[in-house]
Amino acid sequence: MNAPIRAVGATTPRVDAGLKVTGAARYTVDVALPRLLHAKVLRSPHAHARVTHIDASAAAAMPGVAAVITRDDLKGLNATYGYFIKDQPILALDKVRYIGDMVAAVAAETEQQAVRALEAIDVRYEPLPVAATIKEALAPDAPPLFETPAPGVVPAYGTGASGFRDPAKNICYRFCYTHGDAAAFARADHVFRDEFRFSRMQHYHLEPFVTLARVEGGQIELWSSCQNPFPLRKELARVFNHPEQNIRVHVPFIGAGYGAKNNCKTEPIAVLLAKKTGRPVRFCMTMEENFLTQSQHAAILQLETGVSKDGRFVARRSEILLNAGAYSDASPLVAEKAGYRINGPYRWDHIDSRCDCVMTNTTPAGPFRGFGGTQAGWASESQIDMIARRLGLDPVAIRKKNFLKLGEAYVPGESGIDSDLAEGLDLVCREIGYGRGEKTEGRGIGVAIGFKDSGGVNKPAAAQVKATTTGGVIVNCGTVEIGQGIQTAFTRIVAELFACPPERVTYAAINTDVTPFDQGTNASSAIVVMGQALERAARDCIARILDFAAAQLASKPGDLRLENWTVIKDNQAHALAPLIMRHFGGTGMEFVGNGFFKPETDHHAPLEAKCVSWEIGWGAAEVEVDEETGRVRVVKLVVSGDAGRAIHKDACRGQDEGAAIMGLGQALFETMRYDGAELVNIAAAKYRVPLASDLPETFRTLTQEQGHGPGPFGAKGMGEAGMLPVAAAIANAIDDAVGVRITSLPLSPEKVLDAIEAKRAKS
Amino acid sequence: MSAPKSIAPELVGIALTLNGRPLRKSVAPEAMLADLLRDECGLTGTKIGCDQATCGACTVLINGAPAASCATFAWQADGAAVTTIEGLAAQGALDPVQEAFKAKSAFQCGYCTPGMIMLAKALLAENPAPDRATIRDWLSANICRCTGYQMIIEAVEDAARRMREVAR
User: Fold this and answer.
1) Which of A182, A249, A380, A660 minimizes the number of CB atoms within 10 Å of its CB?
2) Inter-chain contact A658–B113, Cβ cutoff 8 Å?
């Protein structure tokens, strides 16, 4: 017999390689239909204003214009959307709440005609006072963004966690988590209070937000660059009062998202225009419009941390303010995650965290790689380093002293940590040369730990696996290929289980009519949640095949084994195709297996279900600081994630490297700059993202395979955690290099120089 | 490039070589090369990202030189030889640069990949053995938000090796 086929861990190319290197890969931007119309929207020039008058009649009469929609077209719809809080209107109703808020939309034969028609729409505004920052929005005399609360829900929470709607003016949501006794602070030898600022990044995905929609015979059909097709279908059904079974969502390849491509973005306007015109409508935003649609959350984080004199963590109180922008989007969930992750992977006697979503007249903030863990990790990992230095302790040693052990519950009622934290930290310390060599002036090394729960909250996932007569295998599930390599991972997992070559397994196109249910491709959940459903589906399919073969071979399924589309019985291979043809005749048969996974509901777990997995990113940076200019050069960057088991090593490496360089951009220069409520650097060339020339001289990522993940073959989710430690590791390295502490991002030369000069003035 | 001849008040007649084949078109004066390629010729491998000549997803070769097709008027390609990603594997076999990107998994979402491959193609045509610093500088013309660039740089090094082997 041949050597066993090994699909998992093999180094052959990704399944999407051929399509992607030839330009043949189809994205939503590439979809076209006959009689297609193009949509463009009119956006508010005011940050906060009442809309007193809209007249679109002149625009409707412009050349090529098929339809114009305004708030008048929203009657009879549930015209607002959002994750938990339905506060964002399809088009402005009574007010606009940020510069860029959508007011009207046009569908025309060409994009140029649509743009020209927008200029003919007459809108009158009555400007209102503006709250552009967290501070302004929380001031006693701040203008309220919402006069009446928007409809919405607070999710169910278990032990220690709670959520509140509208606890104060311009705060749409508050998440709290606590365990242990506040008296623990009295037992601490030192209590340190520090404040941190986190600036907001733009996702900068290269494929814009885009939808192509058609409405025919009561059927809404859309192609969307959306990572959560089923939640999108549900939201559109609610917004349009339309039966869910008559909404079909297709998701082709996605030109990345980094969190942004979720819920309603371009979809409601495309659908509404398609309904009104009876023709297919394409709404593709520009890069500038992406900047006005979604961003990361800026934040102010205050930490009060009690420690013993030998560096044991005792208690922590956290207050986090997230800048949610003008609409809530996924802010409540981001608040939950920031508030829940702020402890880091450490042991505490007492935790008391609060995270508020503050509404401001700026671009709505939403999911961004790391999802609250970025903000929390920046503050927590900076402060831990500051505490170590204040106490004269080694920053690595203090972390190791307080790390949760492998398998130890994160907090009471939670699942155990599924990576060995010390093992990973030792690895990156070795690679960066921590504690080795002489200290060079102006040079320093810093470490940090990125941390998040992964797998989403209480997510159900269903998958299906089909096998054809000739042994072709089709994977059918709702996880979208957004660049992470999930088509490759899933087809290999199934190939391994079927003991067949990976090229026998194909990944079905996503169409919500036939794709089994999924809650979305997010939270590093694919491999640990859908992966478990898929493994069950594959095993179910194999069981059906063996049942069939047992009947044909007068045997028992337990005595048979599937290998390369033969059934092995007593060391003899029986080809399946002839057995199937003999029994079914015609064109044969397909075997279908189904699988389902959901973490168990558990009221003792703070988030109502134990977290499926924990994603750790270990980071170490060596920097050189120019004390004359404040410029920080990252000489060496080492980042490591734990894939549990790497299904495809290059895909894992790529995730870690991409995440790390995104973190590098965040640390050093990326930020959406506002002048009041106006976004100043709104353009591809004005907003600086890392280029190849920004790579550190030495840049290493190390994919660990610790083997403790809950996914197939011990796999875990990865790809977010690699970003999380980078900014704090660099800030910690700057402190090590020149003895100054920067507590706000980005770590610009101005801030570093100011800190150096302040230090000089003091001494 | 020669001045285009006007064939109608609103349209410009152009003739170019696209992926090795002659092409004649009448285009609007404001039409961009990227739109001509994508909408008129169905060559959707050329992607539009920023639409402002910054990200490089729309990179094509015009007479062998990399150009942002989103910021090039279609009429500017009159008389030129234009190569898009679809022109590289026209004979069926992948180009060595494509082979290298495939073998090294030098992509993730793939949206910047055609532009990156065209950019690398132009580099290797000019310099068959670029060092790492040269590759890094050259690739800094385009943006990839997914990969962190290092695997792309390694793929270009690998492509250079492959091309030298073919030439030998």
Assistant:
1) A182
2) no
Q: Is the pTM of this model over 0.90?
A: yes
Cite the residue boundaries of each domain of chain B with CATH code 3.10.20.30: 5-87
Whether residue A591 sits in one domain with residue A727: no
Tell me where in chain B the CATH 1.10.150.120 domain(s) lie: 96-167
Q: Residue A561: give its domain's CATH number.
A: 3.30.365.10
B40 touching chain A per CB within 8 A: no
Residue B30 C-alpha, separation from nearest chain A C-alpha, in angstroms = 10
CB pairs under 8 A between A and B: 164
Query: Tokens 């052959």 sit at which residue?
Result: A12
Pairing of strands A572-575, A566-569: antiparallel
In angstroms, the CA A568 to CA A560 distance is: 6
pLDDT tens per residue, range A264-287 = 999 999 999 999 999 999 999 999
Q: Do A24 and B152 touch (CB under 8 A)?
A: no
* Edge-to-edge strands, sheet with A572-575: A560-563, A566-569, A572-575
Residue B19 contacts A where some CB pair is shorter than 8 Å: no
**ipTM beyond cut 0.90:** yes
Closest residue, chain B, to A682 (C-alpha)? B50
Q: Which of A16, A22, A255 sits opposite B98 (nearest CB)?
A: A22
What is the per-residue pLDDT across A181-227, written as a single tens digit (0 to 9) for each?
999 999 999 999 999 999 999 999 999 999 999 999 999 999 999 99
Alpha-carbon distance B38 to A79, whole Å?
35
DSSP character string of A391-430: HT--HHHHHHHHBPPTT-BSSTTPPBP-S-HHHHHHHHHH
Regarding whether A336 and A320 lie in a shared domain, the answer is: yes
Residues of chain A positioned with their CB less than 8 A from the CB of B94: 21-22
pLDDT of residue B10: 87
Where in the sequence is the domain holding A304, given as residue range(s)? 298-403+413-456+604-762
pLDDT of A432 reads 98
> Is A547 in the same domain as A676?
no
Residue A9 CA, chain-centre distance (Å), reads 25
**Digit-coded pLDDT (tens) for A327-364:** 999 999 999 999 999 999 999 999 999 999 999 999 99
Give the separation between CA A578 and CA A597, rounded to whole angstroms: 34
